Fold this sequence. Notes:
Elements: E1 4-10, H1 17-25, E2 32-37, H2 44-52, E3 58-62, H3 69-82, E4 87-90, H4 101-110, E5 116-120, E6 128-129, H5 133-150, E7 162-165, H6 166-171, H7 183-194, E8 199-203, E9 206-207, H8 218-235
Parallel strand pairs: 1-2, 1-4, 2-3, 5-8, 6-9
Antiparallel strand pairs: 4-7, 5-7
Amino acid sequence: MTDRIVIIPTYNEKENIEAIIRKVFSLDIDFEILIVEDNSPDGTADIVKGLQKEFSQLHILERKGKLGLGTAYIDGFKWCLARHYNYVFEMDADFSHNPEDLIRLHDACANQGGDLAIGSRYVSGVNVVNWPMGRVLMSYFASKYVRFVTGMKVHDATAGFICYTRKVLETIELNKIRFIGYAFQIEMKFTTWKYGFNIIEVPIIFTDRTEGTSKMSGGIFNEAVWGVIKMKLRSYFRKYNRA
């Protein structure tokens, strides 16, 4: 058993799930995988269960339906903390995140003093492939907006390719995380920063999915815009004391 585990939330990812699992398990250092599966009607769970016969380091947490990205990760974090993993990763199933970069994110935490490592699209320019220009601009300026409102010096606040150390997840009160959509990513980084943890941004190239369908929507963007203001205001009434 390794102390590194990758959480991959899934909903209708039958085109990608076997390939991403095999790729992670082919890397030069060992990772385990936890699939958080939201009752996909396309049979994603059946594919994962079939692969469990081949890979003992593959786990699945099945949920009753599509309950939101944030709750998928929170449930995954709690599962991992209960089993004493030291490095917990977030990654998409669709190859928009290059699994090879898991090694670099781990190195940032294990060897460079990071408590949280972010696979960042914007720390060294704009490194996004196959996105329409409108979506690139929306994502880029959303992170600029978060920096302006919160004061947090993170270039890619909405990034979903991340390595958390165990101490970060144990310190954050996971039940107090409010957002369940993509603004969840912002709130987790902001809370980590408010606790004074060291955040390292690792430059990556983000490539949009070629298989399956995106879950991004205008409602998700609106949650991030207005939610950031509410999150900042709430932070004035909360104490961030580390044990």
